[in-house]
Amino acid sequence: MTLRKHLESIACFTGVNLKIHRISHSLTNSVYRLDSELKSWALRINNPYSAALGINRQKECDILMAIQNYSWSPNIVYIDNDLCLSKWIQGDRFNLEKDQNLERLIQLVKELHTVPCSQIQQHAAMDIRQEIRHLQAPSFYANQDWRQLLEQQFERYRLPANPVLCHFDLHPDNIIETEQSLNLLDWEYAALGDPLIDLAFISQGFSLDEPQWQQLIATFKPDEDELDLARCLAKITELLWHEQRFPEQSQLDNYQHWYDTWK
After folding, report:
1. Where in the numbering of this chain does the Aminoglycoside phosphotransferase domain appear (predicted)?
2. What is residue 24's predicted lDDT score, i.e. its pLDDT?
3. Are residues 249 and 149 in the same domain?
4. Which three-class secondary structure state does DSSP give residue 1?
5. Is the separation of the CB atoms in 262 and 149 below 8 Å?
6. Which pTM does this prediction carry?
7. Pair (51, 100) in one structural domain
8. β-strand partners of 183
9. Residues with Cβ < 8 Å from 205, sequence gap 6 or more?
10. How many domains does the chain have?
11. Phi then psi for 15, rounded to 5 degrees?
């Protein structure tokens, strides 16, 4: 469907005389800022190959409805399988180097991981092993050593008995900072799941240095071996996702570095 058709489908919310600006840093979807004379919205047009990237749009919708009363939730105007329209949040890209922002991030994640989950219990918890197997990455699976190491890590991993709500895609571009609050964007990978996997993705998404990482894990006090395994699996998920999304970009050196790090 063309942008024009999508705009026609949401005209009952936005009106028709809009200024349209495409947001350039979205890796998966097409995202636009829509401005009328009085209001602004964010329009996300979903990637048609979302399922291949492990995205369940109904689950995302249910999660967004479950968190609407939290200050850090996007304010959803309309959502379906093709698009998501939300109120525009005017603020700054989250900067971890600002005073107290790491602590603010930690407190935000703690709150996220304690959100009641009764409204989304119908969706199975995200098992990182299944997500990895879902990603098609021929250049990785062609290497027997890499493949065997991954299977060994799969055998060690256990999904927690009590999964929690996780975002699984937290990085500076997905947090908008305003004077009042932090606002979490892009919930398409969110799910019930393993909080250690969420922490591992946060470490990657923010490129945490060692002191920052130590401050993060001091708050959550995870088992060190389980956390180490979570970081291993989160890293290979990121690399496989990039091969799936951008097959023209070779990941061979990155796969080898992953293998050398975790073997």
Report:
1. 20-216
2. 77
3. yes
4. coil
5. yes
6. 0.92
7. no
8. 176
9. 169, 170, 171, 172, 174
10. 2
11. 80, -175
Boundary of a domain, candidates 42, 58, 87: 87
Residues 202 and 108 in one domain: yes
The reply to whether 126 and 204 lie within a common domain is yes
Which single residue is written with the structure tokens 């489908």? 9
**Residue 90 confidence (pLDDT):** 93
Of the candidates 73, 74, 69, the one whose C-alpha atom is nearest the C-alpha of residue 86 is 74
The Cα–Cα gap between 83 and 98 comes to 33
Are residues 227 and 99 part of one domain?
Answer: yes
Q: Both 134 and 216 in a single domain?
A: yes
Handedness of CA 65, 69, 70, 74 (dihedral sign): positive
Structure tokens at 234: 């989160």
pLDDT in the model for residue 240? 96
| 3-class secondary-structure state, position 203 | helix
Distance CA 166, CA 126 (A): 9
Structural domain ending residue among the three candidates 87, 114, 138: 87
Beta sheet of 175-177, edge-to-edge order: 92-93, 175-177, 182-184
Are 35 and 96 found together in one domain? no
Residues in the chain where the model's pLDDT stays below 70: none
